[in-house]
């Protein structure tokens, strides 16, 4: 008994130290996007790499990434109609997605992961995709709004006039 007590104390100390270490490392957050009518809310979401996003209230909706508008290394998404899903985003960049059946209503959104370099150029390159491939045309209006949103939050510098 005499020697057991200090050993237990040290075990507790180690466990406590580990909890603190994990506490500082595990800052990943979960964010929620809800389908409301034929819109995703929020349409533009800003998260940190490692964060997760849950898509909820999806009875007649799904989530499908627009393949040419996903950062390299980020897993593509193609969910089943009606499924609530949770996705982890590890790659810095701008991820586009749509609801497949409501893409004609421009039901889509963007998730900005971390602080991508030259986000204005990423938006330009995505715009170029919409000019080349008709199926991505509904993204144009969303991309314009995204640019305005990122100008407002300071991630894109105001255009020179
Ligand atoms: Cu939908």
Structure description:
This protein has 161 residues and is an alpha/beta fold. It has three helices and eight strands; from the N terminus they run αββββββββαα. The protein has helices at 4-25, 119-132, 139-152; strands at residues 30-36, 39-41, 44-47, 52-56, 64-65, 85-88, 93-98, 108-113. The structure holds copper (II) ion (CU). Copper (II) ion is lined by residues 38, 61, 99, 101-102, 107.
Structural key phrases:
8 strands, metal-binding, 4-stranded mixed sheet, 161 residues, BlueCu_1, alpha/beta, electron transfer activity, periplasm, Immunoglobulin-like, binds copper (II) ion, globular
List the strand order in the largest sheet. Answer: 2-1-4-6
Say what the CATH topology is.
Immunoglobulin-like
Order of SSEs? HEEEEEEEEHH
Q: At the first level of CATH, what is the class?
A: Mainly Beta
Give the number of domains.
1
Rounded to an integer in angstroms, the radius of gyration calculated over CA atoms is: 21 Å
CATH architecture: Sandwich
- Choose one word for the global shape: globular
Which stretches of 5+ consecutive residues score pLDDT under 50? Answer: none
Secondary-structure-based class equals: alpha/beta
Number of helical segments with 4 or more residues: 3
Into which percentage range does the β-strand content fall? 15-25%
Distance between the termini: 79 Å
CATH superfamily placement: Cupredoxins -  blue copper proteins
- Write down the overall mean pLDDT: 89
Instruction: Determine the fraction of residues in helical runs and give it as a percent range.
Output: 25-40%
The total strand number stands at 8
Most strands sheet: 4 strands, mixed
Name every ligand kind in the structure: copper (II) ion
């Amino acid at each position: 008994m005499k020697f057991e007590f200090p050993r237990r104390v040290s075990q507790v100390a180690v466990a406590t130290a580990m909890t603190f270490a994990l506490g500082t490392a595990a800052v990943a957050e979960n964010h929620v996007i809800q389908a409301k009518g034929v819109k995703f809310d929020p349409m533009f979401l800003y998260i940190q790499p490692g964060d997760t996003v849950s898509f909820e209230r999806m009875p007649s909706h799904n989530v499908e990434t627009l393949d040419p508008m996903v950062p390299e290394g980020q897993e593509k998404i193609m969910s089943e109609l009606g499924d609530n899903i949770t996705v982890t985003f590890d790659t810095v960049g701008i991820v586009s997605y749509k609801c497949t059946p409501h893409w004609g209503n421009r039901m889509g959104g963007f998730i900005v992961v971390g602080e991508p370099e030259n986000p204005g150029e990423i938006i330009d390159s995505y715009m170029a995709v919409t000019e080349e491939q008709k199926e991505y045309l509904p993204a144009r209006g969303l991309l314009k709004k995204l640019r305005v949103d990122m100008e407002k939050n300071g991630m894109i510098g105001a255009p020179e006039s």
